[in-house]
Amino acid sequence: MQKPAQLKIVNRFGATRFLPLGKSVFTIGRKAENDLQLLSDTVSRQHAEIVYEDDAYYLVDIGSKRGTFVNDQRVERCALQHLDRVRIGGDEDQQITFLDNTVERASAIFDSHPRLTLTPPLQDRDRITSANEELQKLSRYIEVNQAFKFSLTPDDVLLLIVDAAIEITGAERGFLMLRNQAGDLEFKIARDNNRNSLVGNVFEMSRSVVEESFKQNRSVIINDSRESAALFARESVRSLDLRSIACIPLRRFQMSENMDATTMLKRDVIGVLYVDSHVVGGTLTQTSLRLLESLAFEATKSLENVRLMHEEQEEKQIEQELGMARQVQVALSPTAFKQPDHFEVAADNIPSRYVGGDFYELIPLKDGRSVFALGDVSGKGVAAALLAAMAQGALQAQFVSNLPLTEVITSLNKALVQRSASNRFITLFCAVLDRDGHFTYINAGHNLPILARTTGETEMLTTKSVLLGAFDFVEYKPRQTRLAPGDVVVMYTDGVTEAVNADNQMFGDERLERLVKQSVSLSAEQIKQRILDEVLSFTRGLPQGDDITLIVLKMK
Amino acid sequence: MEIHIRTTGSVTILDLSGNLIIGRSEESLRETVKQLIAEERRFFLINLAEVPTIDSSGIGAMIKSFTSVKEANGKLKVLKPSRMAQQLLTITGLLSVLEIFDDESAAISSF
Question: How far B32 CA sits from the closest chain A CA (Å)?
Answer without folding.
Answer: 7
